[in-house]
Request: fold
Amino acid sequence: MNCKKLSVIMPAYNEGSRIYDNLQATSACLQNFCPDFELVVVNDGSRDCTKGEMTRAALKDQHIKIVSYEQNQGKGNAIREGVHAATGDVIAFLDADLDISPAHLKRYLDVLEKQPADIVIGSKMHKDSQLEYPFSRRLVSFCYYIILKTLFRLNVKDTQTGLKVFRAEVIKRIIGMVRTSGYAYDIEILAIAARSGYRIIEQPITLKYTRKASFGRIRLSDILKMAKDTLFIFYHLKIKKLYDAKTAPKEEY
Reply:
C-alpha cells in the first residue's frame, strides 16, 4: 500500500503507567506498514501519572506527539484537540487501552485507498467481528443502535467503536462543526458526515475487553449526558437542519 502520512489520535484519561507500553506498542505496529506517521496522544486532564508516562514515551520515540491540558473536558474534546494538532493526509482515532489493536489500521487504510470511501469505521456489529465483550455492553450497544437508527436513519450499525479513519480534509471540515465534547461526539461526527454526503464504510474488528468493570469508566452521569447530547444533535440536525460540512471551510491550524 502506498501509505500517505498518517496521524493517529489517541485520547488518554487516567491511563496510568500502561500508556507508556501502549504508545510504544502502537508505534512499533504502525512502523510495519506505514513509514510516515505521527501518533498524537492527547492527555485529557488526567489526575494520575499519564502525562509523565506520555512524556517519557515521546522522549524515546520521535513519532509520538503530545497534546495536554490540565482540566478534564471529555473524550470528544480530546479528539478535537488531536485533529487540530494532526498534520497527516489521513487521520485515525484509536483508543488508548488498545482493546482494538492498531494492526486493524492496515486494512482500514487499504479500504480507504481502494474504495470510494471518505471514512472507514470499526463496527462491533459487523458479521465478521470477533468480540470478547460483556453481555451488558452488547445489550446497551444494540439498544443505542436502535435509538440512533430511529432518530438519524444513519446507514451504519455502530457509531461508538473507537477505531475510525478519515481523509484529513473531511474530518478537518467536520470537526469545526462538532458541538458536543463527551461520548456523543462519535454520533455527531458521523451524522454530519452522512448529511454532507460523505461515504462511510464499516469494517470488522477484533475486540478484547480489558476493563475490570462491565462499563469501564463510563458512569451514570456520562450516560445521561450522552442522552442529552444525542437529543441536542437530533434537534440541530433534523429540526434546524444545520450541518453541511461540504459547504464549510476546512479548518487550518
Notes: The two ends are 28 Å apart (CA to CA). Strands lie at 6-12, 37-44, 64-69, 90-93, 119-123, 130-132, 164-167, 200-204, 206-208.
